[in-house]
Each structure stands twice: as C-alpha cells, then as structure tokens.
Design brief:
Elements (H helix, E strand, L loop, with lengths): L4 H27 L4 H25 L5 H33 L8
Helix pairs in contact: 1-2, 1-3, 2-3
Length: 106
C-alpha cells in the first residue's frame, strides 16, 4: 500500500477511480449493453466524485495542517480534471477513428 499521501491524492485516486469508470464504459460498449455516450459521462464523473471522496477521507484521517489538507484536496481536484480531460480525448479519438465523419457517432 502506498503511504505517500501526495502520490495517493494526485495519481492513485484520480487515475484509479476514473480509469475504472472508463474500463466499465468500454466493457459495456463491447458487450453492447448501454449507450456509451450518456452512461460513459456518468460513470467517469462518478469515478471523479469517488476520487474526491477517497482523498477527503484519507486527508481527514491524517494529522495534517489545514493548509496541507486544502493543498492535497486541491491537487486531487486538478489531477482528477486532467484525468477526465485525458479520458475525453481518448473517447474522441476512438469515435473519430471508428466513425470518420464523427457526426452520427456522437
């Protein structure tokens, strides 16, 4: 288990939870079960919210100053937003690669 709170707040929580949402969307798309457009956004945003909650719980359980806690949560929010941006870029890449005009696939 990683003990460094900075690594957990900026790498493991955002990428782990958001990546789990992305993997669930790709799995559901492969199985043909859901509309990946709406459900994909929901799952990725749910992963982002879980990342923030996991970081807040982690920070609350540690002896840190208020500034350190705020900085860790802010770093998590920034890292989560970057992860969502990368997820959106990957979704767009997949859509444009499989659907050249892109209009009917979005």
């Amino acid at each position: 288990m990683v003990k460094n709170v900075w690594v957990r707040a900026t790498v493991i929580h955002p990428m782990g939870f958001v990546a789990a949402g992305i993997a669930a969307v790709w799995l559901a798309d492969a199985l043909g079960g859901i509309d990946t457009g709406r459900s994909g956004v929901g799952l990725v945003l749910c992963g982002a919210a879980l990342s923030l909650v996991a970081t807040a719980v982690m920070v609350a359980g540690r002896r840190l100053s208020g500034v350190q806690r705020g900085t860790l949560v802010a770093a998590n929010v920034v890292a989560t937003l970057l992860t969502i941006a990368l997820a959106w870029i990957s979704f767009l890449y997949v859509v444009l690669a499989t659907c050249p005009s892109g209009v009917e696939c979005l």
